[in-house]
Design goal:
The complex is a heterotrimer. Chain A is about 35% helix and about 25% strand. Chain A is α/β, with parallel strands linked by helices. Chain A has a domain of about 180 residues: Rossmann fold (3-Layer(aba) Sandwich), CATH 3.40.50. In chain A, the strands form two sheets. Chain A has a six-stranded mixed β-sheet, with helices on both faces. A four-stranded antiparallel β-sheet of chain A has the order 2-1-4-5, with helices on one face. Chain B is mostly helical. In chain B, about 75% of the residues lie in helices and about 5% in strands. Chain B contains twelve helices and two strands; from the N terminus they run αααααββααααααα. Chain B is globular and about 60 Å long. The C terminus of chain B is likely disordered. Chain C has a domain of about 240 residues. Chain C is about 75% helix and about 0% strand. Chain C has 15 helices and two strands. Chain C has a two-stranded antiparallel ribbon. In chain C, a hairpin with a 2-residue loop joins strand 1 and strand 2. Chain C starts with 6 loop residues before the first helix and ends in a 13-residue tail after the last helix. The N terminus and C terminus of chain C are likely disordered. Classes of the chains: A alpha/beta, B mainly alpha, C mainly alpha. Chains in contact: A-B, A-C, B-C. At the A-B interface, helix 1 and helix 11 of A face loops of B.
Amino acid sequence: MKGELKGEGLTVRDLRVTFDGFTAVDGVDLDIRPGDLRFLIGPNGAGKTTLVDAVTGLVKASGSARFGGQELLGRPVQAIARTGIGRTFQTATVFENLTVLQNLDIAAGAGRRWWTMLRRRKEVPEPVERALETIGLSALRDRPAGVLAHGQKQWLEIGMLLVQDVRLLLLDEPVAGMSHDERQATGELLQRISEERTVVVIEHDMDFMRSFARSVSVLHAGRMLSEGTVAEVQADAKVQEVYLGRAAEPVPSEPVATAQEA
Amino acid sequence: MTVILNQSFTGISIGAVLLLIALGLTLTFGQMGVINMAHGEFIMAGAYTTYVLQQSISAAGLSLLVALPLAFLVAGTLGALLEWLLIRRLYTRPLDTLLVTWGFSLMLQQLARDIFGAPNVQTRAPDLLTGHISVGGVTFANSRLFILGLALLCVLGLTLVLRLTPLGRRIRAVVQNRDLAEVSGIASERVDRTTFFIGSGLAGVAGVALTLVGPIGPTMGTNYIVDAFLVVVVGGIGQLKGSVITAFVLGVLQAVLEYSTTISVAKVAVLVAIVAFLQWRPQGLYTLRTRSLA
Amino acid sequence: MTTTVTSRARLARFRAPGGFLLGAVLLLGVAPLVLPDFRLSLLAKYLCYAIVAVGVSLAWGRGGLLVLGQGVFFGLGGYAMAMHLKLADATAAGETLPDFMQLYGTSDALPWWWEPFRSPLFALVMTVVLPMAVAAALGFFVFRRRVKGAYFAILSQALAAALAIWLVGQQATTGGTNGLTDIQGFFGYDLNDPVNQRMVYLVIAAALLLVMVLARQLFVSRFGELLVAVRDSEERVRFLGYNPANVKLVAYVVAAGMAGLAGALFVPAVGIISPALIGIVPSIGFVIGAAVGGRASLVGAVLGAVAVAWAQSTLSDAFPAAWTYLQGLLFVVAVGFLPGGLASLATLLRNRRTRPDSSGGAV
């Protein structure tokens, strides 16, 4: 497996999402090359999570989102997942009543036939074993996921995407609430993963972004504001304005958008 | 032509009954997400309140008028009691609430049986409501017209309370964002209890109206409860107008089907229609679209 | 590091066959020896409820589907069986129509949909297939469109109410309120003979054991883990590439099949099936046993169902009022304050360590 580039590109064209008259994503174009480690940043309500929601089939959208030559929009969530796209959520959602091992085993098994499903798991599948090592939870494999620490849950979620063998990972604020060391470990983990797969990270933490991003896209008010390397984006006057400039000026759609995000 | 008019009036009056019994649920189920199976027993409590009042006030018209606010209080108090005793511990487990309130409803039924006996009891309708009006060959029973008027009055009243009063604003605030409402200084627990009081009280009012058209007995609530829930399910969560439209549509549908087939076939057909409708709109007629995981 | 199963699971593997053996000896050996005919036939009835509870435990305990319409499937199985037995009784008596049809019927001919039930094989297959087909139809439409759990509970209740009302309305062909009563024979055996009643008991006990083995296999299989996952976070499962609707559908349909089997066995044990055993109230009754014993625990649900049924028939005649209060209170206490049922109490006492939920392993 190693060495072979498993990532595939994501191509988004003129994507639009509207909630009851409010436009959360307003004609976004996005190109993510295979093997990229792309950070998606922007103020609250910029439409980052909604963009990921649209690509993964959680909300309806117009426009186009293609991955590996297939159109994603309009397909059910599980069908999009089976094309090799996996995601996490702002709040870690693991199956709290199942063990770490069971969580990973389920994530590995979407392609299993029904007779396999109806039997007991006799041994730990090899990809699960590898993922346990990668995310560093081997020792906790029989613990219910509900008792894991916050950071460990986030890692378990990433591990679930690995055994799911996705080629594109969409991670929504994976380091929120983590300690400095945990952030560092997560960032290194993401860099390792992106050697084989394409990774997109939504993040607020600018230090984390500067340390690990290969490329950056800045969203603002549902539109793409700037794209490029970390240095390019930081030098962009428009970005500086949004982040540093007239912060006192009220953005009309802000409160609605924040409510949507909550 | 007269047949059609007569049947549509029958349908509308069935709809009015559905609306009355479901109106309280639009608050407790629709706004708060509580599946209160004891709602039917609050209806029963309202009906028995009417019955008891008639024992002491012999003028049927007066006792009916007094019964309306009194039944609201009685059923509302029972509802607030249930909320305080049980439901407030179960807000995170809606399906379990269903079973717990069912247990509560069994006890209320037995209580009614112990107090009033198992057989059904009767009330006398005021003379004014026993007659009927005929317009061009179409007959309108006065009692049915009264129920229709009462239902519409309750809808109007509830809308005004929710829209205009500070209480209504607080209820809507807690429904939309409990945490935000709490940090804004709203005592959400008290709002919950008040919401439940009003919702259950409306069941009591429905019970008063039902004494005009049906028997009063300890298990009368079970006859209505599922129909009432179906109205809210089809109408959609958290929207009054959905329930209003649904009640009348289901009423007319039921009347038409009953006329062309039998009551039992009509029941099954209405259920099939509801399942088919949910294919088209799984969240009901009106919903607030938000981005959430659930 | 590549060990096969965990030590805890390995321990459970010895415990389960042992428990099963003990249960089999008690049900098939001790009970028929110790209990008089009357008690044994009561136990047969309770065990039918226990079979329904096994399905409830699967669909509700593991899958989180509040199945409030199990009476429908119990009834369909019961009626399928009773229709055949009534036809067989009539043939044995030299009549062309079952007794109630001669009384209320409008025509001398058997309704067309009764005709296939003359075949014992068709009737037996239908006792399980018919409930599963109805569950599959309802479940398909409800789960496919992601209708909320609360809506599903209400819809299944409405289905129970509708079926009961429909049966009452068709007196000439279904026996109406009375149902199908006074069943004499069971595939050639006279049900009035106590020896044959004992045989019926043994069949029911064996069926319960079989159904429990089947359910346990589902519990410990990968499907069982997936079902818990769907219960806890349906959306997450969808993002892993599964269709949760299919997972729920399987659990619901299997539970319906079990309820149908229970209904079919109920008929020879009690001699009657009627709308009163099908509507909203009995449907919720099927859930209470599982709730009291422990919804997620197979043994808990079975014992709970038997215990509640026993309490009902013992207390409801002597103290009807007190029993209703007690039943209500059971619901409130078991569901409201002890969601894991009595089974969770046992686990709590056994290992004091606090765990979020025992649904991963305890059976």
